[in-house]
């Protein structure tokens, strides 16, 4: 049974029933006395007042706490990766849907002869190489509600240039005034990171990355180099002798490697080798690591070594690739381009696209060490 007297008392305290407590025409206003009663004398309201705090309803959770949540405008991409290969190799414009070039695969050679000898020509062998341009996309969509509700953000790492080492790890922050611009920045990073991944690991026959249908990738450095000039490092730890022997493989085939890429664990192994050499040869400068890259002084001259987040550092699968950049090119039919797509419901849809491939005019000018522990 409802106690109507108790309910009346909870609302109006000691005022008699049918009391007019607010009448502006007759200048009657007892509201202040009711508030005083409710907050000072009423046991229920008094208890609630004492319990009120900055975390009432939940410790800072939107929708529960009395105090609002202020979200920081700085946005950091925790999944970002550096792209040293994309930022180091030459990018060259390309006409047509294939990158075509000729190479000499053998020469007939010159010869000595006796006086007035019969002279016969020697033959040079030429070959045509044709590599297909592949098509890279990143698609985004932003709803009208997102455009209306989401504020601007400062995206840290919207662009990342350099090799990712020391002073050459250049990270910029871009202001995205609306969610559409933010999504474009994010999709641009996706393009760059997939490009880097395929430049290293791509396979033109059986795609390496699950989102890519077979035959849609181009061959990356690993597939292009294949077993050419490989030093098998199975079961051994990396040493100075092994590094120099691998570089010699390229030298003997007329290559002059000037950069190298490796996994992060192999990079540390090389740092260890150089640290020991600095102790043994205190008067010989062997490295400039700690700034932009390790510089290994091999028989072909200084070789800058960069670690890659796209090479595995699993024991038994570690590797380092010595590259002569004079024969490597990223051939580009169309560089990254923004294009809006057809309207989809209450949203804006767009894509970023890039048409490119990787060519190496002479794989024999490079070398690599594989299967390191």
Summarize the structure.
This protein has 373 residues and is of the alpha/beta class. It contains nine helices and 17 strands. The protein has helices at residues 4-12, 31-40, 43-51, 84-88, 144-149, 179-201, 221-225, 240-252, 264-280; strands at residues 22-23, 28-29, 74-76, 91-93, 98-106, 125-132, 134-143, 153-162, 169-176, 230-232, 259-262, 294-298, 301-307, 318-323, 328-340, 347-360, 367-372.
Task: Provide an overview of this structure.
- The protein has 373 residues and is an alpha/beta fold.
- The protein has 2 domains: 4-51, no CATH class; 84-105 and 125-372, Major capsid protein gp5 (Major capsid protein gp5 fold).
- The protein contains 9 helices and 17 strands.
- It has helices at 4-12, 31-40, 43-51, 84-88, 144-149, 179-201, 221-225, 240-252, 264-280; strands at 22-23, 28-29, 74-76, 91-93, 98-106, 125-132, 134-143, 153-162, 169-176, 230-232, 259-262, 294-298, 301-307, 318-323, 328-340, 347-360, 367-372.
- The strands form 5 sheets. Strands 10-17-14-11-13-12 form a 6-stranded mixed sheet. A 4-stranded mixed sheet has the order 4-15-16-7. Strands 3-8-9 form a 3-stranded mixed sheet.
- A hairpin with a 4-residue loop joins strand 1 and strand 2.
- The longest helix has 23 residues, at 179-201.
- It is elongated and about 140 Å long.
- 26% of the residues are buried.
- Residues 279-292 have low confidence and may be disordered.
């Amino acid at each position: 049974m409802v106690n109507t007297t108790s309910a009346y008392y909870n609302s109006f305290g000691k005022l008699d029933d049918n009391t007019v407590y607010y009448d502006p025409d007759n200048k009657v206003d007892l509201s202040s006395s009711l508030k005083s009663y409710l907050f000072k004398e009423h046991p229920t309201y008094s208890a609630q007042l004492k319990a009120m705090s900055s975390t009432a309803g939940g410790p800072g959770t939107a929708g529960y706490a009395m105090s609002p949540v202020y979200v920081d405008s700085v946005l950091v991409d925790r999944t970002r990766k550096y792209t040293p290969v994309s930022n180091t190799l030459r990018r060259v414009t390309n006409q047509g849907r294939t990158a075509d070039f000729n190479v000499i695969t053998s020469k007939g050679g010159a010869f000595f002869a006796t006086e007035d000898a019969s002279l016969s020509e020697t033959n040079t062998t030429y070959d045509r190489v044709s590599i297909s341009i592949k098509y890279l996309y990143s698609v985004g969509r932003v709803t009208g509600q997102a455009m209306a509700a989401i504020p601007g953000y400062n995206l840290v790492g919207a662009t990342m240039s350099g090799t990712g080492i020391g002073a050459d790890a250049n990270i910029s922050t871009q202001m995205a005034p609306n969610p559409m611009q933010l999504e474009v920045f994010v999709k641009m990073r996706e393009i760059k990171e997939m490009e880097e991944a395929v430049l290293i690991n791509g396979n033109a026959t059986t795609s390496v990355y699950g989102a890519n249908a077979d035959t849609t990738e181009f061959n990356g450095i690993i597939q292009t180099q294949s077993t050419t000039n490989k030093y098998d490092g199975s079961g051994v730890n990396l040493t100075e002798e092994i590094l120099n022997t691998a570089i010699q493989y390229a030298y003997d085939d007329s290559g002059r490697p000037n950069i190298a890429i490796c996994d992060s664990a192999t990079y540390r192994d090389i740092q260890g080798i150089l640290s020991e050499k600095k102790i043994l040869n205190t008067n010989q400068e062997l490295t400039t690591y700690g700034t932009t890259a390790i510089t290994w002084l091999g028989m072909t001259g200084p070789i800058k070594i960069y670690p890659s987040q796209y090479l595995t550092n699993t024991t038994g699968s570690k590797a380092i690739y010595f590259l002569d950049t004079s024969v490597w090119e990223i051939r580009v039919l169309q560089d990254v381009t923004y294009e809006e797509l057809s309207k989809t419901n209450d949203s804006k849809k767009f894509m970023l696209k890039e048409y490119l491939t990787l060519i190496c005019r002479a794989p024999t000018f490079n070398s690599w060490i594989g299967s390191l522990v």
